[in-house]
Amino acid sequence: MEKLNLEFRKTVAIAVQEARKNYVGSTAQFADSLNINIAALQRILTNDIEDLDFDSMWISLARQMKLNTKVDNWKPARTAVYNQLEKNLNFCKEYSKSMILIDECGIGKSYSARHILHGMKNAFYVDCSQGKTRIQFIRLIARCIGMDDKGRYVDVKNNLKYYLTNILDQPLIVLDDAGYLDYASFLEMQELWNATENKCAWYMMGDDSLQSKITHGIHSKKVGYKAIFSRFLDEYIHITPTGKENRQDFIKKLITDVADVNITDKKKLNPIVKKVMTKKSTLRYLKMIVQLQTKKDAQ
Length: 299
Fold this sequence. Notes:
Radius of gyration: 21 Å
CATH topology of the largest domain: Rossmann fold
Number of helices: 14
Largest sheet: 4 strands, parallel
Shape: flat
Number of strands: 4
CATH class of the largest domain: Alpha Beta
Distance between the termini: 33 Å
CATH superfamily of the largest domain: P-loop containing nucleotide triphosphate hydrolases
Strand order of the largest sheet: 1-4-3-2
Order of helices and strands: HHHHHEHEHHEHEHHHHH
Number of domains: 3
């Protein structure tokens, strides 16, 4: 196996150093959360890494830091989605409240949320599609907020509750793609909310399948769903307008705003926007078109 080069290790080290700034526990606790020894962490924090060449450790750290080593020049835009998300997340965090955002796929919910959370202290992004069952879900949250997710499940869950209520100051947990969670995980979510009431903010995001799951659960009187909905302010937040014309204007403005900050040659802006709108597609399609055009222009 080819050894990881020094540049890769430097990139990971910078990410770990940034994560340490947002970690409120001790350095020893931070080392435990990353599953490395404190001596190795101290060297990473002081950039003494030239002969610290344990590949498995660096790969594990890169994964935990969610580090993308592939070059991605895609820039965030202050779209209506971004601005509303930022407003909602700041409100939830400041007052330790909870909300549910239900909206279309491909409008930049996840991308915007991750970018916003990067600039907030004690704010964490959880991709629920990576932990669908209750045990996976609890361990995933623990891992995302920098806790040790190993050991007995009940101990991890109890430690998680304590950490959110007694260690972190005004934490915010964003549960993206929450519709992927199974029924038992929703009950665990309610338990976590009850244990952290007024001390931790929760923000659920998903498409209409999440709304259908909760609404169906309420109508069928399935235990937990009505309680969860009540704890998340008894409403679904929507950003995209529902009327056909209003929606089309909204989507066009959204695509134009994102394209504008990612297209250098402004002469190509309107044709690309028109192509995406004609396709009735989303920001993911826009990104592909812009990247293909950029590659073509570079040839």
